[in-house]
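Researcher: Quick test of sequence recovery. Tokens follow.
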């Protein structure tokens, strides 16, 4: 069963997908001259028999799901396989040199024998002498070619790993996912890796879900379910968790503050850019998220950690310590986001006692051996 050749384009699964409904191979198409977002489709019935097209879906999520499965399979074996390949390359180099030495020894023997035959012939028998001289010259040419090949092989250093290269390889194996998405890993390279592991992928569409059955080389099978892209989703779409985060943050702060929170949390746009007030506003408009209205937090009875510090008459750092000790209930959506506290919790007696104790507590010297002076 042919899987096709590795061709241009970003579609990683071209030639591997088979429709689970009609049994035909799926093809990949790109919308536009410079488009890299492939769409897989099964149109064999329509092209060959004038029937209806079978299935069609965007390749974004399917490519990512299969890539994740491939990385999961390669991760435990990545470094070991690379080291084994290096050792095998070294053995191959030594074996090739040994075989070349044996061939060269045989060629020299045949050249010596041809020379002896030429020297032993009667010079007056010019016809025989000419033929033996020609054979001798052929043997000498073969010896020179083998000697040149041996010199070239010896000039090529045997592939060995230094300690630095070995440590780099170990680090690469530990971050196989980073290597997979790095700029140096081309789509053609990823396709070859996938094809070396996967024999075929059978896909069915059920409602808005892709049911994938991955047939690995060796006989194993893996079942995956992948949600289809919704209308407007593409590879540059902002991650869904970032959209959800903005949806909640928009109820707590204006766009400029949201941008600062997302940047501190190392969240980027779909194109990998940092956030600005304009980009946050564009994302809100795209997903119909209302802008923050001044005073709506107060209407819900929520305060920030700075506002809580003012109400409890302590420093903001004290409030953060109370939150860390779980003396003060609070919620933080992500790292870098402000802590949100219910104003009613500030009136709880336990919270007030904890704040009062913190307010009059002497700072520790940090020396566990130092004793307190009893007055």
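Model:
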């Amino acid at each position: 069963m042919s899987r096709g050749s590795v061709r241009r384009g970003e579609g990683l699964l071209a030639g591997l997908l088979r429709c689970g409904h009609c049994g035909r191979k799926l093809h990949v198409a790109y919308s536009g001259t410079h488009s890299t977002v492939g769409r897989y489709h099964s149109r064999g019935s329509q092209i060959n028999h004038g029937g209806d097209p079978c299935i069609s879906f965007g390749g974004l999520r399917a490519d990512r799901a299969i890539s994740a499965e491939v990385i999961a399979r390669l991760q435990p074996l990545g470094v070991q396989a690379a080291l084994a390949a290096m050792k095998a390359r070294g053995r191959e180099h030594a074996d090739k040199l040994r075989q070349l030495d044996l061939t060269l020894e045989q060629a020299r023997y045949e050249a010596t024998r041809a020379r002896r035959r030429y020297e032993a012939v009667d010079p007056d028998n010019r016809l025989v002498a000419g033929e033996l001289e020609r054979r001798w010259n052929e043997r000498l040419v073969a010896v020179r070619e083998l000697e040149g090949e041996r010199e070239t092989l010896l000039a090529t250093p045997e592939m060995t790993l230094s300690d630095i290269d070995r440590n780099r390889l170990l680090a690469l194996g530990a971050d196989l996912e980073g290597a997979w998405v790095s700029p140096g890993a081309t789509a053609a390279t990823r396709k070859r890796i996938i094809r070396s592991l996967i024999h075929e992928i059978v896909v069915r569409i059920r409602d808005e879900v892709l049911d994938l059955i991955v047939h690995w080389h060796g006989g194993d099978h893996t079942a995956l379910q992948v949600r289809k892209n919704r209308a407007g989703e593409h590879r540059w779409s902002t991650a869904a968790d970032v959209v959800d985060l903005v949806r909640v943050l928009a109820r707590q702060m204006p766009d400029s503050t949201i941008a600062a929170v997302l940047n501190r949390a190392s969240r980027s746009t779909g194109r990998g850019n940092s956030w600005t007030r304009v980009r946050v506003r564009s994302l809100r408009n795209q997903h119909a998220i209302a802008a923050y209205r001044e005073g709506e937090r107060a209407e819900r009875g929520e305060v920030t950690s700075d506002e809580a510090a003012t109400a409890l008459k302590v420093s903001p750092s004290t409030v953060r310590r109370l939150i860390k000790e779980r003396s003060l209930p609070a919620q933080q959506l992500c790292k870098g986001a402000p802590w949100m506290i219910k104003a009613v919790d500030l009136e709880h007696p336990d919270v007030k006692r904890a704040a009062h104790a913190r307010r009059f507590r002497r700072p520790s010297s940090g020396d566990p051996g130092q004793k307190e002076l009893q007055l």
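The chain has 14 helices and nine strands.
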